[in-house]
Amino acid sequence: MSRLDREADAFRASMAAAASKLTGTTGTSAMSSAVKRNLAPPSPSPSVGSTTSAAVGTPSRRDRELPGANIVYSQPAVTGTGDSVISQMAYAVTWLRGKDEPQTYHDVLSYLSATGRSDSEQEFFVEQMRRHPQIQWIPDPNLSEQTWKTGTYIHRPTIPNVRNKTQLIAYLQKKTDASGVSVKDLKDGWPDCEPAITELEREHKVLVIRAKKDGAARMVWLDDPSLFHEVEPDLVRAWSRVELPALDVIAQKLIQAGQKPASEDPRLKAEKMPKVEKKKKRAARKGTKSTNTHMEHLLKDYSHMKR
């Protein structure tokens, strides 16, 4: 018997003695079989059931206690909408556009539900409002020193101080050029201006260009009512009954009278003319050096000696 076998038998005997003391039994057959089972070598790889339960089952307590275990890093940190300064400023401009009276900073922040923010955030937003091109800050005249909480705010339209028919006529009269006014710019400070523009057009005080699709006003110019003269209906009917000759007949009669028709397009006349193809002449080569000088007497032109 080898040394290893003797040590294994001694170990089994000690384990059997310890088991008999704990259980109060002296049977060694059951204990020896149990010891043999416990001394079996471990499996070289984990079982399929254990790996499946560990991968698919509920997370362990350690994973649940980690602070960043449930964070989805594929999503942005801020998923809300309308919380940025740009969005809040756009809402503030739209709200001030519909107000006729100046509003305080507290009124604007109350509309935006931002009164619960810290003073530093509110001050930053107020500073951005004062820099915005579509918002006008009116300082408090009763205070010598202004803070970020003082003053009022009002919408600054693209065309200022034009909110009725009288102001529109005055603005058009002050223009120094013949350019028109965009109705889109008028609506920035006067949203319901189209009915007033239609009334001024009927009174011949403005000239209006409208869209062909829906007839909406697009551009407005100043008009003079004194230049408008109403024509009698009989004259309009008589004018409509006059038949005009065809354009070809009018052009022919003008040519016979020695006049040039305005409808004659010189480009069309040039297209009707036949095109003469010009043959390109091959340019003579100049500056080349002759390499067959020893044969010049043979290359002379003797055609004049031909009978």
Keywords for this entry:
307 residues; three-stranded antiparallel β-sheet; 13 helices; Transcription initiation factor IIE subunit beta; DNA-binding; DNA binding; TFIIH-class transcription factor complex binding
Structural features, described:
This protein is mainly alpha-helical. Among the domains are: 33 residues; 71 residues; 102 residues, Orthogonal Bundle (Arc Repressor Mutant, subunit A), CATH 1.10.10. Helix 1 crosses helix 2. The radius of gyration is 51 Å and the shape is flat. It starts with a helix and ends in a 35-residue tail after the last helix. About 4% of the residues have low confidence.
* The CATH top-level class label of the domain at 159-260: Mainly Alpha
Rg on CA atoms, Å: 51 Å
Oligomeric state of the chains? Answer: single chain
First and last CA, distance: 141 Å
Mean pLDDT: 79
Approximate strand percentage: 5-15%
Please tell me the CATH architecture of the domain at 159-260 by its name: Orthogonal Bundle
Give a count of the beta strands, DSSP E runs of length 2 or more: 6
Query: Going across the major beta sheet, what is the strand order?
Result: 1-3-2
The CATH topology of the domain at 159-260 turns out to be Arc Repressor Mutant, subunit A
Main sheet characteristics: 3 strands, antiparallel
Query: What ranges have pLDDT less than 50 throughout 5 or more consecutive residues?
Result: 34-40, 52-56
Question: Which geometry do the CA atoms define?
Answer: flat
**What sequence of helices (H) and strands (E) makes up the elements?**
HHHHHEHHEEHEHHEEHHH
Class derived from helix and strand content: mainly alpha
Subcellular location: Nucleus
Keywords: DNA-binding, Nucleus, Transcription, Transcription regulation
InterPro entries: TFA2_Winged_2 (IPR040501), TFIIE-bsu (IPR016656), TFIIE_bsu_DNA-bd (IPR003166)
Domain TFIIE beta: 77-162
